[in-house]
Amino acid sequence: ADLAQALAQLSFPSDPRVLVGGDRLDDAGIIELNPDLALVQTVDFFTPIVDDGEDFGFIAAVNALSDIYAMGGEPLSALAVAGFAPDVVPLSVLGDIFRGGAQACAREGVVLLGGHTVRSPEIFYGLAVTGTVHPRRFLTKAGAQPGDLLVLTKPLGTGLLSTWLKRGQMPEEFLQPLVASMKESNLQASRVLREHAHALTDVTGFGLLGHALEMAKASGVAFELWASAVPLLPGAMEAACAKAVAGGLKANRAWVGERVSGWEHIPEEWALILCDPQTSGGLLAAVPAQSAKELLEKLPHAAVIGTVTSGTSGTIALTMEPRR
Question: For the chain, what percentages of helix, strand and coil (3-state, to nearest 5) are there?
Fold first, then answer.
């Protein structure tokens, strides 16, 4: 919310080549090069979410690449962005982080061209990514239509579980599924969804409800979300019951506020999960109802979690189960 207010004060230059600019607050910017080719550009970095440096670098890279996939694009090249305190953090740790990021780029077929480091009191790492897309075939948060179904491609819970982990309270059995989910690429999901979706975004720092609200507002529609249909990582519900809540989750819940109705219909633990900020989360797509079965067959971890309605624009109604 604070960022949106700050950006609202900016005047972005008008250029006919810009297809998606900073004024749209979408997942990435798009600029047309010619009638058949446009560039997709984004940058994303954050502080460590797991203790292992290589895992952190890999996850941060996958998270950054996801913004390209959320626009229906294909990442082409990347530059690493990192901050660290050399007198505090051994260079070997930084090497682990960079190695993890390079491995993620190699897996996705992305050329890592170089990068930039700065001195920082806290470690951070991520990528500035350039991708490509056809200038008439990209996807944005706008475009969801009444009657569409909402599809989520990854389970929720990374924020709650990571907070639980940092507190030293998370059972070890939940660590591997957490890391594996954050390392999972959205490439295949994007390629499947781009053939059907009316609107697409990735679920990251604003949580499921925050990003769903952005899509509903951009599309001029309302959403109905079914909490019990939302897939969860192993341990996510236990982390919610343990109140492993960080500041980002609290801020998300305050931000969605009165634009979300039906809180009384869901348990408190579900409210926490739906507002939980995700790292390297899945894609959220609005798809025609007749396409949903085919999509779920191609995306075995995906789930239909709600529907698009013609209610008040930019609002969400929560229920535990679909309304009959």
Answer: 40, 25, 35
